[in-house]
Specification:
single chain, eight-stranded mixed sheet
Amino acid sequence: MSAAARIVVIDDVAQNVKLLEQLLSLSGYEVLTAASGAAGLEKIASGNPDLVLLDVVMPQMSGYDVCRAIRADPATALLPVIMVTALDPAEERVKGIEAGADDFLSKPINQPELLARVKSLLRVRALNEEVARQKSELAELRLARLRRFLSPKVADLIVAGQLDDPLATRRREVTIIFVDLRGFTAFSETAAPEDVLGVLRQYHAEVGRLVEKFDGTIEHFAGDGVMLIFNDPAPLPDPALAAVSMAVELREAVARLAEGWQRMGYRLGCGQGIAQGFATIGTIGFPGRQDYGVVGAVNNLAARLCGQAEAGQVLISQRVHGRLEGRIVAEPIGALPLKGLQEPVPAFNVISVKPRAEVAK
């Protein structure tokens, strides 16, 4: 770094400036000079230096004032500053450190000492920049990982620190959707692999589009099966309504896709199950491979409702129906005996979501 490093020298005495400029230039550094504190700050703002050599005693704006201004600017808060003075070293060193200086030199300047201190601070700056680069790369990797199952908007909010870490264990009420393509097993056994992948890409693209639109979270993809979560990690004002609204639009989107699939001889449809309840949320897996996961009875209920849903049906639990009564059109289909549950469970088939204007009447 030292061969290409840029140094700003700020001193109101022209002879001092010339001496420092000559010494640093001969040592391979690029040098910018300024004869006052204000001019020096302008050079720092425009020159993007790697280090500043700053005289203490200057008219109008002292070196301490310049150093404090450097530290107050987020863009230069970590810029290395060496203060130079002919005054009492002990007293001035304390003042310089309080102003934010990194190092201190006394006049007359010892040239080997100056070059050694410059080299040392530039090495520290290079290490700080490497740490910052690695931190940025880790943030990008984390963001890429989060985007595997979150909408880009939610992932960005988490990385920015505006939402809780989705990998931290917590308990929260969530609404869950399970989605499956009806007829997919038979289709995948007879169709060409390229056709199977083509159908899945179209289907997953619609899921992804609608998850982002309704601020949901993808817990996992498993072929044609998808699990979606609402109200985590981003809290929603009405997760049940968001989930059902998405399910209705996904049903319509898959129906449009199915028209094209049918022309190719493939009979596919979309069945969905939705439930709401409390669950434990956090990371599941093992060291080296951990994923976002949700554990709770609500998962099982949503999955079982999905298993009962025929193509084109969106089956919701009684709790979801109770939360949305008056805002959706749904028909009761009776109590369903669901695998793993001791008692039959009342379920409702969603016909549509009422427009807001109609709900408000």
